[in-house]
Write a structure and sequence with these properties.
Oligomer: single chain
Strand content: 15-25%
Helix content: 25-40%
Number of helices: 16
Order of helices and strands: HHHHHEHEEHEHEHEHHEHEHHEHEEEHE
Largest sheet: 9 strands, mixed
Number of domains: 3
Radius of gyration: 22 Å
Length: 390
Amino acid sequence: MTPAARLQAAVEVLDEVIASSREDGPPADTIVTRYFKQRRYAGAKDRRAVRELAFRAIRRHAERPKSGRAAVLGLADDDPALRDLFGEPRGPEAPREGEAAARAGMVPPWLVPELSPLVTEDEWPALLERAPLDLRVNVARVQRDSLLPDFPGGEPTRLSPWGIRLPADTRIDDHPAFASGLVEVQDEGSQLIALACEPTAGERVLDLCAGAGGKSLAIAAAAPSAEILATDANRGRLARLPSRAERAGANIPIRLLNPPNELAELADWRDSADVVLVDAPCSGSGTWRRNPEGRWRLTPERLDRLVAAQERLLEIAAVLVRPGGRLVYAVCSLLSREGAGQIERFLSRYSSWQAQETRVGAGRCDGDGRLLTPGRDGTDGFFIARLTRP
């Protein structure tokens, strides 16, 4: 492909990403992969170049552009070399007089007032930088220091005692340590959420929103004799956990929940969990560096629904925690309503519950929890709070 043809391909990919973000379809990575499966003639260099162009455009635009062409015109405003490709054979048509390029931005304007006051404008660029690849070592089977030599270029994570940090483009899916369950891909911030649970031997731990089970696996590695139950309402995501647990050598039963019947389906855990982890569905604003088109998918209405769902999950968790037990709440969000505001509202309803400090020696105090950000902590953005039942 010529440089002009690559630019046109980026326009086409972006058109699909824009449509998918509007219709809540597949993410940009999936769209890029699918695009090139249908165009086998494109070589590896072409695929990398088109992907880079598409993601540069996605990162540049806080709000959903009108079209892929408008997004690429925005890139060309910053890079005159790209503008020269318009009008070339197999490239995009030459710009028309008065044709508008999409406007650059980092945070959608409507979301700025929703951000935690701690996330000042000087931190915004870090929200969209490329993220490194973090691994979590399965400390139930091996120590981190003994594995480090197996990952050239890797270094211990600064905050998590279980992590190894690798460059962003590292592939580990064919690495022997991954295949044998000695490591899992997990952002350092996610590791800290499991650390905040402080699981100990023999405790009953319920991972209420387990998804594919990354934090359940981390808890199992930290406390192999703990009784862990992983639950979720998403069958597809939860179904990925058993094979991961087998690879890691962990015993983690799963239970598919059917809202709004969660409490009936968890009757055997009522008032008896030592720990309930609520890693709640959220805006994903803390993971924009991995999923920058997430900014295009979020709307005020969707945020309202997420905040309501988080509140409902906290209500369920409060019934499951035993007296003296603990509830750990986390969201990969930098928005106050989903983090500090959510816990403030919970404690106003459950005034006898108490917020506790955690072992997470990172982030900044945000209300009754801690906020980790890419710019200050080098992790994805997370809010973490730990509460105890009287």
